[in-house]
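Letters spell out the chain; backbone shape is given numerically. Both lines appear below:
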Amino acid sequence: MSLLYEWLDNAAGARRGTVGGGQALIYRDTYLSWHGLRHRVDRRAGELQGFGIQAGDWVGLMLGSVPEFVVLALALSKLEAVVVPLDPVIGGRDLDMVSSAARLRALITRPNAMPPSATLASAPAGDKIPERPRPMLENRRRVSGTLLTCAIFERMPRKLMADVVPEVVLFTLDAGGDPKGVVRERRQLQGIAAAVASTLDIDARTRVSTATGLHTSQGFDLGLCLGLGQGAGLVLDDELVAARLAKMLAEQSVDVLAATPALFAAMARLPTARPCRSRRTRCISSGEPLAPAVARAFRVRFKVPLLSCYQAMETGPVAIDLEGRNPTTVGLPFTGVEIRVADLQGTPLPVGGRGPVWVRGAGVSATAVPAVRLRTRGSEIPIGRCRSDGWLRTGDLGSLDQGGRLTLGGREDDLVKVDGRRVALGEVEGCLETFAHVRSAEARVEHDESGGSRVIVRVQRDGHCTPKELIDHCAKHLAPHKVPARVEIAEGG
């Protein structure tokens, strides 16, 4: 068995003989005990094995934050298959690239959720593209007791280095804006769970919840990985509304809540929100910069601080401001994590100097798919790659003060965060420049005091087109969070 199922087995075993077996998974008004969760996982593992899924197969889970995601991930872990969580609103182009990189054996999702432009199952038999192989559909099966479908594809094993044994692959964007699968092995999963549990003082009595999908770094690391690793209860909710999250805090349903600044800002604006009853509750803000106005408003409303946190797919959680007094900094490193601000070769800069942020720790992954070779100058280490001594260049820019507290300040490339998800501005610009009457496009990201962020694009026209037409064009070709919120027409354009 792989580590996720091993954690489940350990948590269920530790509660053997206890009344109820403890609450492992809470979803709205229902819950599963650790014993009940293990029983359901074992049954699902047998079903997936009957579908033909076996050890080493890469299986995509394109679902929201629902109990079945957790059950399926653990069932795949029991079979020693590789769990590949995917954004349920992924665009067709991105899904095509993900399938080529991961060579999925199966994809489990809602009926008709696969974008029509995706080529996962539509390539004609015998069509082989060496640089972008496409798995051929063998059959579709319905997952019993659910509305989910499981598409089974021909086996196209993904070969990695001999010493790499993947258990989970989380997809993000590379420096060039294309999907990149970050390979997590047992040691990375163990390192992330141990670092967060030690820093936040998590134990089996804790309840944790995240307001982002389990396919994200925040959702997976601070939710699923942390909960399973410590045997803590995981509270799920696939409707990310501020009122529901505020109610969970007021009723002390969760001890750790991770969300984006925009969601915390929306919670602070609720006129009927009640203060949090427990001063031990930790509310973690990550994914985007935390505006001081949002941090102040939240503390006034709920009587607990917002803790600004820095994390990434390639590194796991990196740093957190445990005191919650200065939202402009992301604080000190998690237990066992090292941070340095250095030049492009990894040589540390003086205290206070601004430059690329480098991270080293047990959660850092040096393996990704597809394996892209980037041109560099001299001994420069590419963004998202590791040196031989384990230091990874994150692509973020920042500075360290005398006390080792990290302050972030932009990116080295054009990757930005919108609603906690990476967006390559070049991809948005390229999409608009394919429109017949657009000469050029320049995209940027805007942050507001309420904690929200949005993509804004300025275009030069080469004919008549309206902002609405351009936004509609992007909506047809990009994932929803990449679609510009506003298109500005340049003067003379």
In short: The radius of gyration is 22 Å.
